[in-house]
Amino acid sequence: MEDRYLKGGFTLPGEAGYEGLTLELARRWGADVIRDSDGTKLSDEIVNAGYRIYSTICIIREHNAFAMAHPDAQQQTFLSSDAALAVEDTLVIQPLNGYFEEQFELNDTPDALPYWQVWDRTAEQEVPRDHWHYENGRVTVTHCVPFHRYTVSFLCWRIWEEINMYNHTTNHWTSEHLRQLDPRHPAAWDYLKNWLEDWCERNPQTNVIRLTSLFYNFVWIFGCDERRRSRYVDWASYDFTVSPAALRAFEAEYGYALTAEDFINRGQLQPTHCVPTAHKRDWMDFVQRFVSERARELVEIIHRHGKQAYVFYDDSWVGLEPNGRYFADVGFDGLIKCVFSGFECRLCANAKVPVHELRFHPYLFPVGLGGLPTFMEGGHPERDAMSYWLHVRRALARKCVDRIGLGGYLHLTEGHPAFVDAIEMMAKQFRHLKELHEQGAPAALPLTVAVVHTWGELRAWTLSGHFHETDSHVLIHLLEALSGLPVNVRFIALEELSEETLCGVDVVLNAGRAGDAWSGGSAWQDERLVTALTRFVHEGGAFLGVEEPTACPGGDSFFAMAHVLGVDRDDGRYACHAPWAAGETEQKPFTIYPNALGADPCLRVTAPDTQVLCMKNGVPQMTLRAFGSGHAAYLSGFVYAPENARMLLDLLLCLTGKAAEGAPLAASPVVEAAWFPFSATLVLMNNANDPVSTAVCCQGRTIEAELQPLEMRFMEIKD
Amino acid sequence: MEDRYLKGGFTLPGEAGYEGLTLELARRWGADVIRDSDGTKLSDEIVNAGYRIYSTICIIREHNAFAMAHPDAQQQTFLSSDAALAVEDTLVIQPLNGYFEEQFELNDTPDALPYWQVWDRTAEQEVPRDHWHYENGRVTVTHCVPFHRYTVSFLCWRIWEEINMYNHTTNHWTSEHLRQLDPRHPAAWDYLKNWLEDWCERNPQTNVIRLTSLFYNFVWIFGCDERRRSRYVDWASYDFTVSPAALRAFEAEYGYALTAEDFINRGQLQPTHCVPTAHKRDWMDFVQRFVSERARELVEIIHRHGKQAYVFYDDSWVGLEPNGRYFADVGFDGLIKCVFSGFECRLCANAKVPVHELRFHPYLFPVGLGGLPTFMEGGHPERDAMSYWLHVRRALARKCVDRIGLGGYLHLTEGHPAFVDAIEMMAKQFRHLKELHEQGAPAALPLTVAVVHTWGELRAWTLSGHFHETDSHVLIHLLEALSGLPVNVRFIALEELSEETLCGVDVVLNAGRAGDAWSGGSAWQDERLVTALTRFVHEGGAFLGVEEPTACPGGDSFFAMAHVLGVDRDDGRYACHAPWAAGETEQKPFTIYPNALGADPCLRVTAPDTQVLCMKNGVPQMTLRAFGSGHAAYLSGFVYAPENARMLLDLLLCLTGKAAEGAPLAASPVVEAAWFPFSATLVLMNNANDPVSTAVCCQGRTIEAELQPLEMRFMEIKD
Lengths: 719, 719
What we know:
The structure is a homodimer.
Chain A: E1 10-13, H1 19-29, E2 33-35, H2 44-47, E3 52-57, H3 64-69, E4 76-80, E5 84-85, E6 91-93, E7 104-106, E8 117-120, E9 125-126, E10 132-135, E11 138-141, E12 149-158, H4 162-171, H5 186-202, E13 208-211, E14 219-222, E15 230-234, H6 244-254, H7 260-264, H8 278-304, E16 308-312, H9 327-330, E17 334-339, H10 342-350, E18 355-360, H11 381-398, E19 403-405, H12 417-439, E20 448-453, H13 467-470, H14 474-482, E21 488-493, E22 507-512, H15 527-538, E23 542-547, H16 562-565, E24 567-569, E25 603-605, E26 611-616, E27 619-627, E28 630-635, H17 642-656, E29 665-666, E30 671-676, E31 681-686, E32 692-698, E33 701-707, E34 712-716
Parallel strand pairs in A: 1-2, 1-19, 2-3, 3-13, 13-16, 16-17, 17-18, 18-19, 20-21, 20-22, 22-23, 23-28
Antiparallel strand pairs in A: 4-12, 5-12, 6-11, 7-12, 8-9, 8-12, 10-11, 14-15, 24-25, 26-27, 27-28, 29-32, 30-31, 31-34, 32-33
Helix pairs in contact in A: 5-8, 10-11, 11-12, 14-17
């Protein structure tokens, strides 16, 4: 490995009291930046060692004195009580029963009570206000219908900042519970701006303020019972942005008022995975503008002090979507994204911001995000790091970022030399990849995939949180596969799907379950959508549907695009209808990996000319069909694995009739390749835990390579 | 076996040309009646041998000369063309394309054309009549929206009686295709009545006319392509009853007109397994009354000639439901039901008619209904007969019928002595059971199960056809289990569910898939239903939900009764909600057979006090919960097997807190027992293919029994 890959583009978490270790690892890993972390400090010795310094600030947290003095400046949320059964005509409900009393406190102020509601959930009707009253933490409902169920929707204060709460409950922290301020509260906002001014003045050594993140945490609702401690978590929802002040501002601007039920939604809230109501969409836009405007004020303060402002995209990030409409307005200097997966690299790389930085996992913490040990007895941090790197490097081979780094307690690396070695290797390989990208983009196929779903570009390269939090959704597996394939990827919202937006698209991909935001649900009731997509395929385009694509109530098929796919799902409507008898095609156009697919017993061939590429238990799970001048394919599921990603690439080529010549292709399905024409470098990645010997077609030549387990190899190819 | 079990209650299919065989088997099987069958005749020698004679008549068939002379007297149906894609503004559709041209002929008479419709299926809108015209078998649609799909709904003549068509295509018959007359056609009806008068006069030897069945066949639509020959089959639907005359009569009576779309329903028709529209319900009632009135006229003719009228409940049975509102009005002397299963025996036994007769399977035909060989190379008719008998005998031990019999070509039994022996044994055991019932009913538990679904009593003890035709529906498995259990069973329509109808009920059972007629679909949106059932359980009743019970759109849970069950199914709404953590209960209240259950990955515990009796892959599949003074249980599926039926019985006892003492119970789950107190006889049935040694608790005594494989044993128990 050449010297030029030894240093740069690496952010190291320093730790006071471990100055020697800090400087030693800064050297080993080639750091050019040292940062602090949640729970660590930097000492003067570290700060003055000649590195650029990032300082982490969670702007709304660590102001407990102000919060205690101004309890009405704290953040809030709507909650719904669990449903209570009436057995006579009066019912008493304690709204917070079942919730974690350390997280929530009723907001029964005169400002808040008008927003409370009581609902008859059996009849799905709001109970008239003169049929209930509130007193001393209890709601008494009168005129009940016996054996109906009732809920109270109420506002409450969130009295424990959620990330601090997580660290206490997971990592056994015992310090004071931190509170969080709502920047919409005028006094709080003045206070926060002054505090930031003051901080900047007191910390001249800091080059970059690393905001973690801005104002509102993603939704994380704890219960009082250990058997359901984390009752609800949605990484991309907006419930924690609510307050009477915000509701009033919304009403003033939009001309209509939101009610508790717009958030509570029959107790189900509105998970990001579900199709949002129009009201929720309005609320999100309203919050995004507010967050962006206030963030810009903070960034201006930071810039005025000669510092840069990077934002960490996690925790209290809500309203900050890097691919959203208002992100670029804020003026951030950098975006930092923690990554387990390839799609997260693409998400970061895709953002319009000067510097893109990845924070690698594992975080230097005793316990990982999934709850398993990392830097403690029973943990294997080097193994974890390598397993994430396998996902990350293939995405970096497609689109690079500017920097990488780590976070947490540096001293925890002691006793883990294999981890230190692994990070050293990754840092060098990252710098090599970055250099290749700087010399010129890697070769890509002239093939553009448009992922179509409810959210479009707003949720480009993500669903809601990390892979392991969303891996029951098929789309995250497809995004992970696509993140390392030599194809172009776009994201189009269903409401924006039209002949115009499909211009330049080769394959439209829709993947999700009936009614969810990814499949699209009732959006497909819009005939214009179906008509545009039907025309697109008929005139030569391709459609790829996965799991329950375009599923929609009210149509003459379960999949709105069944007439194109030639396959449909029986939700009961076909009870007496025979499917077309169809056996598995003998001549497969490419290698099929059945483990990639689902095993849905309810699928059925609905056209005589549908080709079945894979059946399970006599039921088609993967099909292909010509339609007009185009093609359509259906997969009952998709699980990310290297060979499955290869099958997806083969399928995209097959659907579009394009040759793979534009990009290098290995004979082995577990080896991926990227070709950098400007530096004449072929990058080979063995995704297998075994050595692999494979031929690779690249630029009309066949190169034989023997790769070590998991090896990433850079090969200059001279003519 | 005593002499008194050697003869009686047995109907033998005779066959001219095989007089010796006929009389020999009549003796062996103890026949008291000889019948003809579809395709066989009786000779004088047989007719005069001293047996009562049944003659089979299919009243609407075998009148080809009349049908050719009066083609407008033939039966009809609505069909929909397959959807055709418009690529410009004009589209030509040949409506019958894809259908079996030997079954259908367009009805483009001036009487019929006004009922035709053209639909834009992409927009789900009817195309205005001035945007299409019909000529020479083709419909031309103008003003099309490019890339919308269009269908034509049309009337057509059914020119081949469906059972005859089935026999030609399955059993390679080559005789003339038989046509069928519509009794609603005045000339045809006069003709048919005269024909029956004449037939009765010419056949004085016949004692019983066995009507097979009445007028309208169940819906059976053939396609032109071998890969989808049987396009649609619904054993309980009414599409084949339609005609312009019937539609006009309906409109005159009901004050509103039905359209083609009421039948076509977006091309999906209205399978019995789906929740019917209000219009379909009206049409069914209209047809039931017509069928019952016309059938009564036929029965009166038959009675006037001193003969009896039995009806075979199959084939052209539509409108004749034995548990329907008008069946008793017809005045039939007997009902004959062919049986594979226990539930079919209960269906027959439940009908209000003097004589109940079962026709056993296999039918004496080369090929069975499932399409596999029976009386030909590769067939095992004795094994088939025994497998059906295992199901039938346990139902007969609960409720007996009056007669049994066979049908088909008797000569096919030659070369199958094991079959002849098996039928001889079954006939004797049947007579013994019948004698026990005549002496007094068997002991039953004081436990009443109410099966609640859309159809209620109209479809008591059936869904739509035989077990093997409906075995993807969980309810048929439960009915099969219940048919042999010592409990009382009622059927209640959801719209009739109330405190009054639940009086005397111990367990309410709802079992089906979301939106189907068995689960009930939108019926559960009626809060009164949910309230009544919630109260029923809260006040001490029990609710048993299976698969997707009470599933209903629009509520705050997927199962409308989730608040009682303590379990729900995640259709996406719980994407971010954690379930209650729950492990499998260690102390099971009875033996659980996991194979009985499904393996639904989407189930979740929604209450802290739900007991999980069985989990698969960490997901609950069987749960139990106390609710108020009552109990609720959930099963993710149910597959009929003897031990699973026993588990169901144990569950019913557990849910109701009742002791099993009222009825005998074997220690072995594969042995069933019935106790006839009036004859002090214990009947033991070994359902296993292996010998079983078991203890049986009966009347406070423990009886040890060693049973041969599949043995049925009658034991007199003396004090």
